[in-house]
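Now for a sample.
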Amino acid sequence: MKYVTNKEEGIMYTKRPGAYAIVVEKNSDKVGIVTNGKDYFYLGGGIEEGETNLQALARELIEEAGSTLKNIKEFESVGDYIYDEEKGYFDVIANVYIAEFDKKITEPIEKDHFVIWVNPEEYADRMCRPWQKYIMQEYIKEYRK
């Protein structure tokens, strides 16, 4: 697994495994990402104790988009050492999948998150965290040849 940033010496990082999806739109070049009006990031989030990657991804998709996924394929795992002003230092381990939306089953729980459809090349450098930028660039290399 590749880390996209370096660990700072003397800092205690909390492990933060997560599961995320690049949601592709069938018959389109666009991908679904999430915005809170300020930042751009992937659908998904932290894996809770006892959850598998796919269980966490399914839960997060309900919370953020009110939808289920289909055609889920593993893409890549990547690490990033990050600092969050409110929560501290994290060793993020992002397990990323490529998938499509399946069924809308409810309204999203997280009302401040909005799914938008974007051209990956235009948003790669706008993603919130270094690992997210790296993943979008890898997606472009792999799927946008």
User: Anything to note?
Assistant: Residues 63 and 109 are 5 Å apart (CA to CA). DSSP finds three helices and eight strands in the chain.
